[in-house]
């Protein structure tokens, strides 16, 4: 019988429709008690100034655990799994599964998310320009996305789809990025990235990516995270 996780004093500084959704999901999977402090975006969809009181960059997610303050999704995921995680959410070091887990844990924010942010910014710039400039800027940035961003996103979508197919081919019960029966750090990191991918660039993603997002959003722990954190723009229908 496994021992209960250590007591926590975790506070999640949660910004709506942000990377902090993956942290709430992780905490629910670990069955930890925690407090949520919610922050609403401005009319320009930016984080509010109150977050600067928590961290100098004014970003989310940020957690506090006692006297410790941690920012950056990857650092938070690693910290929570290292301190509070159980064996089912970890992967044996040195195995092929560990290599996949390590790669996709860092791949989410290191490779895919910057492209999705670029596509979003190229969409937002014309919309926030003076009205007379918008038609020209829409044409310019649409071409930039189609020539620069979309081909790269398609490459990444193909890579992810092939990896999910590899996992599917091993066993029906192994649904997660490290090839196991339970989500690991790779899944907690890839979750928000793929939710954004499906929402922002549905023309690129394949059926296995969509099925993966739907599967993670159907988990009881994920649903509890949404109930506590608030509805997300990135929820798929019927999840």
From TrEMBL:
Record key words, sorted: Transferase
One Gene Ontology term, aspect cellular component: cytoplasm
EC number: 2.5.1.18
Family assignment from sequence similarity: Belongs to the GST superfamily.
Protein name, entry field: glutathione transferase
Pfam family, one: GST_N
GO molecular function: glutathione peroxidase activity; glutathione transferase activity
Species, as recorded: Panaeolus cyanescens
UniProt-listed CDD domains: GST_N_GTT1_like (cd03046)
Organism superkingdom: Eukaryota
Catalytic activity of the protein: RX + glutathione = an S-substituted glutathione + a halide anion + H(+)
Domain GST N-terminal, chain residue ranges per copy: 7-88
Residue intervals passing through the bilayer: none
Keyword Lipid metabolism: no
SUPFAM superfamilies: GST C-terminal domain-like (SSF47616), Thioredoxin-like (SSF52833)
